[in-house]
Specification:
single chain; Purple Acid Phosphatase, chain A, domain 2; 4-stranded mixed beta sheet; 9 helices; 6-stranded mixed beta sheet; alpha+beta; 28% helix; 325 residues
Length: 325
């Protein structure tokens, strides 16, 4: 439940850009203290996940966030990159020669996963005690937070998915142990729980599988799925809800609106998301939803929303810093 005396500053995907994070914190009125920052009176941070991968200052980002979480001045939800970091080092009992996130073999997928995670491993020291310590800390991060007046999740807020993960034993306050990790990585052949789909939905959002001859490219990687902004209930065409990086729009010409895809209007407490690599001038999606990932790792902006208890979101509450030079 929300503490009515606390206002929240929510921050989108940092991806290891410590310089931008520290600049944004200073702009928000936070002061350096110890390894982290001291908030202005009555305020608290909420990080929306994807602290790691890509940027040059990943250890510093982790130090800031963890120290503030431990001090009680910040909260942090798990992004897909933190989940991937856990899965990257945890052996899969179904395939003892591999991990849940494949990276040991010669397959194209294993090579792609190694490239995506290489900067983190180089900066943290692959296989070191520090590596294990940070992965263990990632396991403590909740997938979602309902703070009463606001809700925070990395990819997509979905009540059914939250219920499925809760039934699988994973909810705020419960660390991701190996038993739960297996449940959210593999569907059982008998009596499916929906935990795998629920985990993907909450951390990655709604995705459409692409035909074999169609791929989305981003950040030097190729993807076989298309992200969908399923909260845009006003949309009538696939182009309005497809979230694709520049240069990928051509693929939409070959795709039909999936018969199962339904747009969902967000109601209740406002929802804050990361994950979706927006670009341009930061704006909220609607009075009930704000996406705060504005491509800090791709030369864009690191964006925060200053929430003061309002039930209706406003563009004038957005604060951001630009990527350096």
């Amino acid at each position: 439940m929300q503490d009515s005396a606390v206002a929240y500053d929510l921050i989108g995907d940092v991806h290891g850009h410590a310089d931008m994070l520290e600049a944004l914190l200073r702009k928000l009125g936070y002061s350096p203290e110890g390894r982290g920052y001291r908030p202005p009176h009555g305020r608290r941070l909420v990080f929306l996940g994807d602290l790691i991968d890509r940027g040059p200052g990943q250890l510093r980002v982790l130090e800031i966030v963890r120290s503030m979480v431990e001090e009680g001045t910040a909260l942090c939800v798990m992004g897909n990159h933190e989940f991937n970091a856990i899965a990257y080092v945890t052996p899969d009992p179904r395939n003892p020669e591999e991990c849940y996130r494949v990276n040991r073999g010669d397959s194209a997928k294993a090579a792609s996963n190694r490239r995506q995670h290489a900067a983190f491993l180089a900066q943290i020291g692959e296989g070191t005690p520090a590596h294990k310590e940070w992965v263990d800390w990632f396991r403590t991060l909740p997938v979602w937070l309902d703070l009463g007046g606001l809700r925070a999740v990395h990819g997509c807020w979905d009540g059914h998915a939250i219920e499925a993960l809760s039934l699988a034993g994973w909810k705020p306050g419960v660390a991701l142990d190996d038993e739960i990790l297996h449940r959210v990585s593999h569907e059982p052949e008998e009596a499916p729980t929906g935990a795998l789909a629920a985990r993907k939905l909450l951390t990655c959002g709604v995705e459409i599988s692409l035909p074999e001859d169609v791929r989305i490219t981003k950040d030097g990687h190729s993807f076989d799925t298309l992200r969908i902004a399923n909260w845009r209930h006003w949309a009538t065409t696939l182009d309005e809800v497809a979230l694709v990086p520049g240069g990928n729009r051509e693929v939409l010409r070959h795709l039909d609106w999936p018969t199962w895809l339904r747009m969902t209007e967000v109601s209740g407490s406002p929802v804050f998301l990361g994950h979706h690599w927006f670009t341009g001038h930061p704006v909220i999606e609607s009075p009930k939803i704000a996406v705060l990932d504005w491509s800090a790792a791709g030369g864009g902006k690191l964006v925060a929303y200053r929430w003061d208890g309002e039930d209706t979101l406003s563009n004038d509450k957005l604060v951001w810093v630009e990527a350096a030079g």
